[in-house]
From TrEMBL:
Any single Pfam family the record assigns to this protein: DUF4922
Keyword Transferase tagged: yes
Organism placement in taxonomy: Bacteria, Pseudomonadati, Bacteroidota, Bacteroidia, Bacteroidales
The DUF4922 domain, residue ranges: 394-543
Stored InterPro entries: DUF4922, Glyco_trans_2-like, Glycosyltransf_2, HIT-like_sf, Nucleotide-diphossugar_trans
GO molecular function, one term: transferase activity
Keywords assigned by UniProt, alphabetized: Transferase
Name this protein carries in UniProt: Glycosyltransferase
Domain Glycosyltransferase 2-like: 144-277
Length: 718
């Protein structure tokens, strides 16, 4: 398809109408190609023949999206024809057409065409989001209203009064960044300075756009936990707007909240199109549909730690849209559909009537933002399709290039040659324990994990503190790393990109998704008080299925079913460890079942995470590569998702603290609970008799009586 620059006749006057180059991010359904489009006939016919949907409004939009999947859309930079413009509205009026309620059916079709396109090019994001822990950081002030301003003498007092009149149950302030105003705005702000909640900043730099002013505000020491937007020519709807916006963060667990606004004239009278609620945003597809539209709504509010980490582009157009794309890539964006904001349209608005050159400049910038976001999505999604292949390549490369890894894995191979098998068996259970020396794990086994000790050392999972040689693979908001101090033949650490405390809440679904992506691995989780050597940084571990964990734990699952159906099965064991085993047909069923059990555990944990270790895997226990007919065998197993919840009573056994010959430096985590005992002192290996090993397992496990009580409660809620 080709299109060209052209002329427009407006009110009898011919004007140049240049267009912009089409790129991957040019997903707006109102992209201005002009009136004349030329298609290659064979490509046109082929695409039309592939149509599955019958659109009333989105046919042409769908056509050009599908054509763009096959080849480039070419822009000819010549003025080749003239058209007569029939829509004589100003640019400031046209920009809201896509949110006009009268056009809703049109938008629904456009949304569907865009979503289908994103799925076809592997640019679609599923609704999986990073959790937000609002207790990670402390702020003296709960919220700050941020108002960048330059030369708004007619409106700035209205904006500030609107902000200061908010009624909340938390402390807040108003930070105005006065960008070298020359029309009396600065003097007007000084007149309002008697209210101590007003912080009037004037940047030293003279090159700041709106985004740069925002950065100055959010990095100010007085900025609150949440930063809420108020443009210098707008006002809040009433005194409750700020409270409503802040409440939404906690109610929806999101890093950004966008409200609903009403269009008004300067005197606050409603004007067309009236209320702009952006109800095209849905939890599942909001961030995907965001690539099709040119704005996300107002007012916009942000969780300040996330915003400080990202920072705002130093522009005066599109900086808010850029933030929305960036934040929604990882986090949920909350919505408030009640009107909380009044957007005043008047001749002083910076976008009231823009020349074509400025419109093109703005659209080109947002198209580039979308292109960059789309490129990142496609790159990440392609990596997700083949994570195991990428991991094996990284393992090989780290073995070659990183001396520590090379030495550690060679040493592990030698240690495992000294492996000692210990059989634990009794009525209804059998567990094979494999113990071997591994002195390189001494730091992990003896690590102090109390808060003071953890706070005193740099976090070794944070990217800035890792060895320079340590490579990683991005997987959504995690980074997959080779563990340089292994206890397994293939030992991975899967760390959250952001430094946030170890917690399974909000991450169990991620863990099960990872079992799906890494079918040749077991996924493991150690709670912050029972085995996690980095309780300050959320992470999982993974071990290759050659470890045969599931084959080692031949517990009396069959005789202790709690629940059984065609979609899930729940069993438990009380020897030699206390554990609950979940099998589920679907990921959704697994996550739902775990939550039911977790909620019962949490009821007894006094606001702390229950003491648990988790072992999860997909499909069969053996390596898929060892099966010629793996898929055929797997198809015979109806419940593909597996998770063992090891229930704990304490972190370390008494023998860890005993002095003298009776001491055994063993610090059980998920590996030990699954039957793998890496012993950091060789002399301790001799002390691990079947009786002593059984004693350790029982001592750190939930007592049998408590387990029976828990099982009874679980049965009631299933």
């Amino acid at each position: 398809m080709v299109y060209a620059d052209h002329y427009k006749v407006i009110d009898g006057v011919r004007q140049a109408a240049p267009t912009i180059d089409y790129q991957a991010g040019s997903l707006r359904d109102d992209f201005d190609f002009g009136s004349l489009l030329l298609f290659r006939s064979n490509a046109f016919k082929k695409v039309v023949k592939s149509f599955k949907e019958k659109y009333q409004y989105a046919g042409l939009y769908d056509l050009r999206l599908k054509l763009s999947q096959k080849d480039k859309l070419i822009h000819i930079n010549e003025f080749l024809y003239t058209e007569v413009e029939s829509d004589l509205r100003k640019s400031g009026e046209k920009q809201f057409d896509y949110v006009n309620p009268r056009n809703r059916q049109v938008q629904i079709e456009m949304e569907q065409a865009c979503i289908n396109h994103l799925k076809a090019i592997n640019g679609y994001l599923n609704p999986v989001f990073r959790p937000v822990n609002f207790s990670d950081t402390s702020f003296a002030t709960e919220a700050s209203v941020i108002i960048p301003v330059r030369n708004r003498i007619h409106t700035i007092k209205d904006a500030v009064h609107s902000a200061l009149s908010q009624q909340t149950d938390f402390p807040f302030n108003v930070i105005v960044i006065d960008n070298h105003s020359t029309d009396g705005t600065s003097e007007a702000l000084r007149e309002l300075s008697s209210d101590s909640r007003l912080i009037h900043l004037m940047p030293e730099r003279e090159d700041l756009g709106i985004g740069g002013c925002w950065n100055l505000g959010i990095h100010h020491e007085a900025c609150g936990k949440f930063a809420i937007q108020l443009d210098s020519d707008d006002v809040y709807k009433d005194e409750h707007s700020l409270q409503i916006m802040v409440n939404a963060f906690y109610e929806q667990n999101c890093a950004m909240v966008i409200g609903t606004y009403r269009m008004t004239d300067f005197q606050m009278n409603e004007i067309a199109p009236g209320i702009i609620d952006h109800k095209e945003w849905t939890p599942d597809d909001g961030r995907n549909n965001a690539l099709r539209i040119n704005g996300l709504g107002a007012p916009r509010a942000f969780y300040t730690p996330v915003l400080r980490e990202i920072n705002v582009p130093n522009t005066s157009y599109g900086e808010d849209y850029a933030l929305g794309l960036r934040i929604s890539h990882d986090y949920q964006i909350g919505r408030v559909y009640d009107v909380v904001y009044l957007c005043r349209r008047w001749e002083g608005n910076s976008d009231a009537a823009l020349p074509i050159e400025k419109i093109n400049q703005n659209n080109l910038y947002k198209d580039r933002l979308r292109t960059w976001e789309l490129q990142q999505r496609i790159q990440e999604q392609n990596a997700l399709l083949k994570p195991q292949k990428s991991i094996e390549k990284m393992l090989d490369e780290q073995m070659q290039s990183w001396q520590l890894v090379q030495e550690s894995y060679k040493a592990l191979a030698q240690y495992r040659k000294q492996m000692k098998e210990i059989e634990l068996h009794g009525e209804g259970f059998y567990m094979l324990v494999r113990a071997f020396p591994n002195p390189k794990r001494i730091l992990s086994a003896t690590a102090q994990t109390d808060a003071s000790a953890v706070n005193a050392r740099p976090c070794f999972l944070c990217a800035g503190n890792r060895p320079q040689e340590q490579a990683f693979i991005n997987y959504k908001h995690y980074q997959i790393l080779v563990n340089p101090y292994p206890i397994f033949q293939r030992h991975l650490t899967i760390a959250e990109q952001k430094h946030t405390p170890q917690s399974i809440a909000g991450r169990f679904e991620d863990m099960i998704e990872l079992t799906d992506a890494l079918k040749d691995y077991y996924l493991m989780y150690n709670g912050p008080e029972c085995g996690a050597s980095a309780p300050d940084h959320a992470h999982f571990q993974a071990a290759g299925k050659e470890e045969r964990f599931a084959a080692s734990i031949w517990l009396d699952w069959q005789e202790s079913d709690i629940y059984s159906s065609g979609t899930r099965k729940i069993s438990y064991a009380n020897e030699p460890v206390s554990a609950i085993y979940i099998q589920a047909k679907t990921r959704k069923s697994m996550v739902h079942t775990f939550k039911q059990i977790y909620d019962e555990l949490a009821a007894d944990s006094q606001d702390k995470e229950p003491m648990i270790n988790l072992l999860a895997w997909y499909g069969l226990e053996k390596l898929s590569t060892s099966y010629y007919d793996y898929q055929e065998v797997l198809d015979e197993v109806p419940l593909h998702y597996n998770c063992v919840i090891f229930l704990r009573s304490k972190h370390r056994p008494a023998c860890y603290y005993t002095q003298g010959d009776e001491q055994i430096l063993i610090s059980p985590a998920v590996a030990e609970m699954s039957g793998v005992f890496p012993v950091v002192r060789e002399e301790d290996l001799l002390k691990l008799t079947p009786e002593k090993t059984h004693e350790i397992c029982r001592e750190v496990s939930m007592p049998k009586e408590q387990l029976e009580e828990l099982i009874n409660r679980i049965v009631e809620v299933l």
